[in-house]
Design a protein that fits this description.
The chain is mainly α and about 70 residues long. It has four helices and no strands. The chain starts with a helix and ends in a 13-residue tail after the last helix.
Length: about 70
């Protein structure tokens, strides 16, 4: 998975969390066949990473129910 280096260096959160979030967002983009994917030669991971780093898409961690 490739993240923009400059944004990755500035990122203050958990790298694991942002990696999982980007993977899941990339899967969503691929499954819905979003137009933005075709515009970027099918590079869903790069699109997902950019969306997360620019706060276009946000994620949250759900706590397991007990």
């Amino acid at each position: 998975m490739i993240f923009p280096l400059e944004q990755l260096v500035k990122f203050k959160g958990s790298i694991y969390e942002i990696t999982v979030a980007a993977s899941r967002r990339a899967y969503q983009l691929a499954m819905i066949k979003a137009p933005v994917v075709e515009e970027n030669d099918g590079k869903v991971v790069s699109i997902a990473a950019r969306q997360l780093f620019t706060d276009e898409v946000q994620y949250r961690i759900e706590q397991p129910q007990q």
